[in-house]
What does this fold into?
Amino acid sequence: MMPGRGRWSVWVRDYQLLIFDWDGTLVDSIGRIVDSLRHAADICGLPQLADDRLKGIIGLGMAEAIDSLYPDLRDSVLFDRYRGAYSECYLALESQPSALFPGVLEALESFRNDGYQLAVATGKSRRGLHKVLEGRGWLDYFDVTRCADETASKPDPLMLHEILAHCRMRPEQALMVGDSLFDLQMARRAEMHSVSVGHGAQPLALLQAESPDLAINHFDELRAWLSQAPNNL
It folds into this structure.
C-alpha cells in the first residue's frame, strides 16, 4: 500500500459513501474492451491502434472515446457503425461476466457490513451496466449507479454530484476509487478524495500524477486503510 499525496490528505477520513469505477477497478474486463475496440475498427475498415492508445480512453463515455481514437468519425456514418459494432461485440463477450479482481467481493461485502453506502460511476452505457449487473445478480447491490450516457462523461464531475445528491452526502464524506486518470480528475473536480487502483487500464506510476490519497494494487489494502478511518474506530 502506498500513501497518496492528495490535496485533502490532511483531512480526517470520515467517509460514508464509497464510489467505484467498474471496468478495470472492480472487474477484469480491460482485455475484452480492447478486443471489442479492435473488432469495431475491423468492421469499419479503420486502422488498428496500439494497446496503450486503446486503454488510454477506457473510462470515457463511448462517444468521447471514439472522438479521441478516431476524430474524423464524428460526422461520418461510420461513427454509429463503430459504436454499434463495439457494443455488440462487448455484450456478446459479457454473456459470461468478466471476473471480479481478487479481493473485490470480500471488500464490497465488508464495506456493506460496515454501513457504507456503495455507488458506481462508470463510462459504460446504462444498457451495458444493466447487462453486467444483471449477469451477476447485482441489480440492487449498489445504492446508486450513474452511466456516461445519462449524464456528462468523465472527467466532468457531474455524475459524482448526482451521486452525492442522491445519497445526501457532501464531497468530503465520499471516496472515489478508480483505475484511470479520468476517475481521479473527476474526483478532484468534485473536491472529493480518491484512490487509484493499479490493476486496471493505467499503471499507478501514471495515476500518481493526479495525487490520489491512496494507491493500491489489491482491495485488501483499501479495506485496511478504511479500517483506520474514524467511522470504524
